[in-house]
């Protein structure tokens, strides 16, 4: 696969080849995209009819990059008497400044050509874009090329404009220029993207001259993002670099949905540049000690979009929390159920879990009271629609059997839920982690009902239901001959015997009996599950195991973040540190954004984290996972109006200090050392001042 270069801002992104050109490829979403539509499918630069090659590329920010190009192949680089700077940036529009440099001692004439086209493909059809006949209007007088696509009320438009005189035709723009000896020439190309239709809005920058102001605002926004986040001081420089990269990735993956006012996390580049309920909820849970501002907007939006009826096509049920929100053509015309898709069984309990956890960190009682009705609907859904067999277990079975998602958990690939012999259980499926989430949601819902909703009877009922679920779960899911919990139960109550990373989610939820935690920790950190980089989704030694299978043996940072937190919850500090160290080793070894998933090969075999082609990078819950791993390492936990800090730092990390952790206490500092230099804690007061070492 060829190298791809991306710039992004929220859900607007552009992917090109290593030289900056965009041409349709069947394997990747190459082009300029916004709100699930490709607005540019062709963007190819030539000089005197010759393609250009990159001498270098500078990735300035996530929204900005620069290419230094020359004509010809590598053997001609040293002889080139012309070079081109291609400075690309993105906000709500796409901008490219072309600068031609004449290196000769004589004036030179050049023909600079940009081939331009759009197929307006939906992101769901990138492999095989459907036939469309866009209307193309070439306007040389106004230096503008307009490409339009309409289907009933669904309309999308690409407008390309230039600041320099240009000949415009239906396939692109041609500049016939003369450049002085050792002189330069430049033009700014601006690509506006317009969405027409119900709920649509104009996505263009109003003026080309606004370009630099927009980029200044984006830099200011990024600076504010870092200013609001805690500052990490670490002896291990690679840890600081990984932390800063994770914060940058999270900043880049914020977008404002149509008909909404605040920014929420998208899933990640390139396939998940949209709102995914599960990804957003877990990202918010991972980042509460660092970027808590993501959470209120996410909770409010998911409450606004909460299911209110029975709809088989969209897998919608009253009280169910959204799985996916798309704006593309296939969603608009019902060819895919993704306009509002609810095919997830875990988003609904996770909604309640996040609401409670956010209040514990922030003290925002108003939001808890405002979202009382959606939270109670979510809790009701667990029993009314989630308990499909009437046995008290949360299960899933797709209502949409044509193009709905079969496995409605975070392991959502079709083959992900199988036993150790590769046998898939029948529907409805009760996976083990769903029971942990449901238990946790009921416990947390009881606290919210008692402390904020003035409903002690409801709180008592939820607590009793949680206790019964915990008792039943530990009876029915436990496999005494294996020393772990079954992956799932069949409708008949038969256990699905498979050893998976779900054990860590169970620890994180608190549903595990303490006497059984020893066995789970041993499995999670044993050679079948732990690769050396992290915990595999599916343990080696079972028939379906595949180290490059996304959910059958690969390693996910987001998964490992919950696992490490679960291990520390039950007091397995050394085991948690092992997971933390492995995951940060991935980030430090690869550099840049941590990928969504890596292969599950043993570390001592490959010596290097093996990335998978399907992995998104950056990905919100992967980057958020690094932050959660850092919080787990430092043992950060809210307790009333105080931040508790109980560090257990892996060997070799030295001194770590996290300054200005936000919360209901104001700002506080956390400090820790690895075991080779001793362990200490420092906690700041509400004003951020230090109280001394403890």
UniProtKB/TrEMBL annotation:
Q: Which residues form the Putative glycogen debranching enzyme N-terminal domain?
A: 9-189
What are the GO BP annotations of this UniProt entry?
Answer: carbohydrate metabolic process
Pfam families named in the record: GDE_N_bis, MGH1-like_GH
Stored InterPro entries = 6-hairpin_glycosidase_sf, 6hp_glycosidase-like_sf, GDE_N_bis, MGH1-like_GH
Domain (Mannosylglycerate hydrolase MGH1-like glycoside hydrolase) spans 422-589
Name of the molecule in the record = Glycogen debranching enzyme (Alpha-1,6-glucosidase)
Source organism: Micromonospora chaiyaphumensis
């Amino acid at each position: 696969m060829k190298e791809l270069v991306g710039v992004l801002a929220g859900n607007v992104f552009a992917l090109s080849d290593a030289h900056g050109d965009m041409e349709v490829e069947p394997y990747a979403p190459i082009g300029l995209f916004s709100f699930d539509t490709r607005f540019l499918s062709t963007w190819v630069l030539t000089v005197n009819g010759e393609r250009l090659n990159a001498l270098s590329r500078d990735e300035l920010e996530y929204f900005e990059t620069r290419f230094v190009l020359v004509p010809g192949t590598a053997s001609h680089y040293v002889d080139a008497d012309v070079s081109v700077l291609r400075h690309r940036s993105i906000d709500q529009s796409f901008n490219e400044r072309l600068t031609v440099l004449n290196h000769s001692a004589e004036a030179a004439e050049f023909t600079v050509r940009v081939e331009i086209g759009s197929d307006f493909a939906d992101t769901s059809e990138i492999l095989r874009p459907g036939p469309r006949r866009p209307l193309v209007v070439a306007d040389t007088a106004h230096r503008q090329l307009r490409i339009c696509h309409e289907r009933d009320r669904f309309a999308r438009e690409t407008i390309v404009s230039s600041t320099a005189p240009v000949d415009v035709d239906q396939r692109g723009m041609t500049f016939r220029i003369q450049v002085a000896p050792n002189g330069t020439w430049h033009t700014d190309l601006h690509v506006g993207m317009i969405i027409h239709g119900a709920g649509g809005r104009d996505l263009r920058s109003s003026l080309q001259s606004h370009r630099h102001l927009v980029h200044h605002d984006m830099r200011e926004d990024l600076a504010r993002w870092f200013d609001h986040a805690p500052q990490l001081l670490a002896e291990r420089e690679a840890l600081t670099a990984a932390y800063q990269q994770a914060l940058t990735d999270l900043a880049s993956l914020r977008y404002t949905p149509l008909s909404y006012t605040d920014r929420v996390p998208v899933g990640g580049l390139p396939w998940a540049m949209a709102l995914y309920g599960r990804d957003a909820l877990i990202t918010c849970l991972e980042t509460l000690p660092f970027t808590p501002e993501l959470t209120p907007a996410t909770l409010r939006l998911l409450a606004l979009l909460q299911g209110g009826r029975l709809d088989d096509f969209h897998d919608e049920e009253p009280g169910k929390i959204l799985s996916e929100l798309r704006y593309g053509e296939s969603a608009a015309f019902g060819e895919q159920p993704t306009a509002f898709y609810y095919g997830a069984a875990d988003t609904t309990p996770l909604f309640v879990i996040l609401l409670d956890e956010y209040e514990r960190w922030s003290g925002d009682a108003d939001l808890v009271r405002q979202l009382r009705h959606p939270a109670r609907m979510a809790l009701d859904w667990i029993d009314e629609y989630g308990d499909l067999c009437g046995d008290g277990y949360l299960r899933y079975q797709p209502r949409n059997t044509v193009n709905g998602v079969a496995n409605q958990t975070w392991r959502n690939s079709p083959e992900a839920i199988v036993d150790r012999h590769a046998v898939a259980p029948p529907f409805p499926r009760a996976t083990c982690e769903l029971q942990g989430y449901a238990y946790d949601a009921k416990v947390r819902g009881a606290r919210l009902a008692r402390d904020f909703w003035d409903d002690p009877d409801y709180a008592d009922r939820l607590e009793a239901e949680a206790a019964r679920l915990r008792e039943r779960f530990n009876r029915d899911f436990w496999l005494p001959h294996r020393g772990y919990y079954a992956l799932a139960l069949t409708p008949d109550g038969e256990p699905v015997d498979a050893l998976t990373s779900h054990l860590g989610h169970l620890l994180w939820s608190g549903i595990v009996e303490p006497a059984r935690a020893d066995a789970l920790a041993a499995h999670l950190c044993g050679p079948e599950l732990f690769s050396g980089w992290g915990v595999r989704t599916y343990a080696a030694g079972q028939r379906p195991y595949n180290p490059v299978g996304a959910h059958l043996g690969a390693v996910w940072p987001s998964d490992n973040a919950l696992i490490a937190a679960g291990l520390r919850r039950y007091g397995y500090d050394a085991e948690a540190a092992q997971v933390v160290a492995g995951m940060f080793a991935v980030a430090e070894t690869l550099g840049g954004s941590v990928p969504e998933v890596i292969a599950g090969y043993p570390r001592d075999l490959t010596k290097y984290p093996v990335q998978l082609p399907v992995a998104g990078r950056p990905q919100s819950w992967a980057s958020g996972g690094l932050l959660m791993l850092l919080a787990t390492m430092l043992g950060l936990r809210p307790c009333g109006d105080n931040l508790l800090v109980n560090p257990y730092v892996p060997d070799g990390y030295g001194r770590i200090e996290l300054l200005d952790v936000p919360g209901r206490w104001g700002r506080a500092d956390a400090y820790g050392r690895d075991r080779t230099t001793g362990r200490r804690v420092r906690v700041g007061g509400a004003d951020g001042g230090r109280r001394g070492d403890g």
